[in-house]
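Methods: example folding runs. The two proteins below were folded one after another, and each record is reproduced exactly as written to the output file, sequence line first and structure-token line second.
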Amino acid sequence: MQNNEMKNDITKLASNTIRILAAEGVQKANSGHPGMPMGMADVAAILYSEFINHNPDNPKWGNRDRFVLSAGHGSMLLYSLLHISGYDVTMADLKSFRQWGSRTAGHPEYGHLPGVETTTGPLGQGFANGVGMAIAAKMTAARFNDEKNQLLGNHFIYGIVSDGDLMEGISHEAASIAGHLKLGNIIYFYDDNNITIEGNTSITFTENTAKRFEAYGWQVLETSAYDHDAIRKALKSAQAEKEKPTIIITKSHIGFGSPHKVDTSEVHGSPLGKEELIETKKNLGFPTDKEFYIPEEVKALFEARKKSLLENYKKWENEFSVWKKENAAKADLYEKGMSGWLPENIFEELLKAAGTEANATRSISSKVIQKIAELVPNIIGGSADLSPSTNTYMKAFAPVAPDQFEGRNFHFGIREHAMGSLMNGMILYGGFKVFGSTFLVFSDYMRPVVRLASLMKLPAIYVFTHDSIFVGEDGPTHQPIEHVPVLRAIPNVTVIRPADAIETAAAWNYALLQKEGPVAIILTRQKIDFIDHGPDFNPALAMNGGYVVSKEAKDKLDLVIVASGSEVPVAISAQKILQDKYSVRVVSMPSREIYEKQSDDYKKSVVPENIPVAVVEAATMTGWGDLFRSKLLRLGMTGFGASAPYQTLAEKFGFTGGQVAGRIKNWL
């Protein structure tokens, strides 16, 4: 009993140390959110000093537990934890919180600081990222573990989530799929403090959270945020539950320790103030004449924890070395996954698989995906309940299902937002190349996660089909108009809209090779007319983002028509009509982003300076004027589509060879 009391005393001191460090970091920056770190410091101290299995000296160790601070506004909690746990996070980092050039950004940013598992801030994203990590862990375990060895994927995904996380719709989507898949490796603490920016949560958030999560198939536990023994008991119960994810509803007080601001919205997103910070130190028994102070007892606690963790890691490392020798084939597969290995001849194989026949690019893509699945063992992917339409199912492989994580096809359900965030979590976990698919018009549901993947430079692959008004009879609700320009506007996103089999194979090849930033492959529902590249065409040109697909007939060049996807054959048709009077070149531009990376000499060879350019694309025309500074004609959409067969829509909206040629003649 006495030992337990001593243990709780030192943990209380550690909790208060974290509490004060967080408040001081926010105060020094004169910006930030001290309330959440102060409220949840005890939970965090117990997690990092007793439960989370990690290695501060090797933050990327594959079999570590992950901790996701979904309530990313409380970032000083995580930064303080990482510092006292022995990560390469210095006191100078804590003191430069939210400053220019600092590694301790206002919200945790992946890649800035060791121990930060994902970029959080937009609420609900960390919640869903953690579900993706838990899925990847289960898939890793299914591939590499056996009765004798449980060395990979055998760990937990911990997290702290807030009221705001649970209000955002993405948490509903992600919680639903986590319960369905029986992800018993998820342990989330819900910081139930009843406060948001506008005041008490009772003004908007009165649902029964426990019943909601029970309905999702989660284990629901409840505890006080300050009862250390109860927190430990809840964690052990969560670890023991193998069939259900766990949410621990943790009743807390925002700004705990502050005499005057505790339980107020004032402490959510503003510093305590110098006087209140001093009063808080007094209230918690901390010296008022010291800043960023860590008592020796707390240092010793976390040094001992780190020593114990390193011993665990060395034991694991020795066992892993033996496993690799005894399981050479599995070890090779694991190393290939972690290194991003691809066959050297991947592009040639994808070109063969794509074939040469004209078809809808979604159908051609399906052939390419089957070959990728055969050649790249760590490719996994799925759709938001649309694989029969997006043609993304890997036919030779099983689906992922509850208690069946060996598969490679993923049924995300009608949950586009969660699909994108789960993909981010799987990629962050490591070892997998991941794609997800839906109709292009529904990329709107995914825009927040595409943006975060771009911010984190994650090589997610998005397969967006039904790419224009030529979806046809489903009408304007399902006909994307602005979506391609919107995706192009997000930094680090590579958008590829292929026009035929060669370009589709090139799109997938580029996506597989990409290491920093997502790739969106934009595919047609309808068949595209055949493009004759000629016998001497080098398919590698399609990897340049833009290239001459149909040369001019005369030496003097009068006009360049630039098109993408299904409009490339339309441009070639217009070229033939115009060629009796004008010397016209057609450029296929599947990817503006890739094209812009080419040398100036190459770009001038494709689209010479001072030559009029006409762009044909069945979308809004945002951005084309930034690419071409010559005289420019934009032939695109200025409004929404309509419900009719796609051939009729092509005529009504001016996307036939004759109509394009006529508008160019009038323009010239």
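Second run, written to the same file directly after the first:
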Amino acid sequence: MMQTDRAYLLEQLKIHFGFSQFKGNQEAVIRNVMSGKDTFVLMPTGGGKSLCYQFPALLMEGTAIVISPLIALMKNQVDAMRAFSMEDGVAHFLNSSLNKAAVNKVKEDVLSGKTKLLYFAPESLTKEDNVAFLQKIKVSFYAIDEAHCISEWGHDFRPEYRRIRPIINDIGKAPLIALTATATPKVQLDIQKNLGMADAEVFKSSFNRPNLYYEIRSKNNATKEIIRYIKQNEGKSGIIYCLSRKKVEELADLLKVNDIKALAYHAGMDAATRASNQDRFIHEDVDVIVATIAFGMGIDKPDVRYVIHYDIPKSLEGYYQETGRAGRDGGEGHCLTFYSYKDIQKLEKFMQGKPIAEQEIGKLLLMETVAYAESSICRRKSLLHYFGEEYAPDNCGSCDNCTHPKVQFEGKEYMSLLLETLEAIGDKFKTDYLISILTGKVNALNKSYKHNKIELFGAGAEKDAKFWNAVLRQALILGFVDKNIENYGLLFISPKGAEYLEHPYSILLTQDHEYEQADEEDSAAMPTGKSGVADEELFSMLKDLRKKVAKRNNLPPFVVFQDPSLEDMSVQYPVTLEEMQNIAGVGAGKARKFGKDFVDLIRRYVEEKEIVRPQDMVVKSVINKSTNKVFIIQSIDRKMDFEDIAGAKNQTIDELLTEIEAIVHSGTKLNIDYMIQEVIDEDKVEDIYEYFREEAETDSIDEAQRELGSDYTEEEIRMVRIKFMSEQGN
């Protein structure tokens, strides 16, 4: 009989791992494994999952087979085990990265009984020769790490994980331990079913991470906000997640330009660069890693102080897993996410082309993310509810919704109406359907069920779908309504909800957030439309100065700087020529030619008025490395025909002219005479040029056309205006 008394286990823990106490559920899990029972472990990141199988493997007879999805993760764990043990062969992995000699060495160690833990990726486990080899050895137990990969409802589904059970049956019977750091009740049921471990003992640790602060902001000027946030938290380690590799590269470049030590990480980079960037982050050569979700599995850096999501994740499991990389040491951890419904629509687009069942699942998971982001209920309460855990306090004091609560309103009649309507239609429907009945929106589905004829149809029509969504989210959190686990998403009234219907009582509800749906700013774009003048007094002083400078240079004022540039100066207060280059529509050429008088005026103004300049000013944009821009400049230098330039970049002539205008406006000199001579009559060129030099009050094409007459086309005027601006303004 194996020795499992407490003193012995603690002594072995000290010998093998150097710890004097077990953490959380670890001891109970280990005893269960050692007694030969199936075990299911739900333990948040940083809770000490791997010890739950590494420790019993060392004490039990035979070799434990550990199935893990990532080669890097296996390697880390094998290295860690070898560091703890005097015996090099105590842990091995078998995967595609090993050559034949290395594979033979592993098999030798396993057969001699040295090896206590043997790691496999699920793909390697299915190979016939590996199965044949494992049939020869005594397996102490099977450990399936990252078990959520089994479920299509998990955030990291891998089809090969669903083939683990039949292979285990082939190799030979032994107890199972499945472990995951994120699993909703739905995913848990899926895992247990698929692995045939419905009777397993389940050990669930709390998913609450009290040291994390959760915050969601509208995705307005996100890059500026991120740079400001990092500058305010200088020297602290952080991870920024983006959905696309392109955005990862762009954002990492932008941070570097702003003197932030940052590196990029994504699956498109070669393995050596990825590994080097990861190591430099872990060893604190850099403060920030900008990454896709390829980064993070098995990253054991305890002092990550913030995790920023530039793009919202596809599921709440993904969100929990990624935010969980902050503050693992129990210290400060800020989880900041930028949210725009446009991103959700983009994610839905990505799903098109996948099998319908997968699209359905993806959409439901996305809607859970939307519910979390838009809801004004305590974030911690929402998140833990999603993982099947109840969080009692109404105010966690550590999320944006609790520290800045929204005004509440009496919700008794709304809650009663929602529950009555759900009772009337029954438990076969999802959220959208219930809300269509409440708001009285007739559609093919409710017509076919004849629910458009029931008395309650449209009973809540004075409120919109957004309002009813908010009420339903709170009904779910309060436990009045539940979702069917087998048929995920179908709503039904719980016993608690039925009781509320019988005896309704006063209940306070809050409305959801209204996030502005602004586009992410483009630092190279010129502001258009509405005036963004922050300081009217400075703006009028800048206009006066522009007049003087224009007169001195014998130019129309709009050639010096256009209005949107002056508006931006009155917001940003640039006081150096370098800062002037970050103003909309001002490039290095313009700043050098006309900037000095303007920055001198602004500097005097700022000192006189004791103005605290916005921190935004420190945000430098990456020099526009747009390949398009470089291509256009080089092509014009080589005197290429505009038709050919536009054709090469799949553009219209109109789009090409717009790009050339932007290049010239920001101060780059371009000589397009060769093109003008080819397509415009010489007299016309002279007339248009003279108009802009002598008569024009603005650079408007419409006004120019009115003055010059219908013989002059828009294209001709634009081309000569480009020549004029380039020669006179740059």
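Comment on the second run: Residues 519-532 have pLDDT under 50 and may be disordered.
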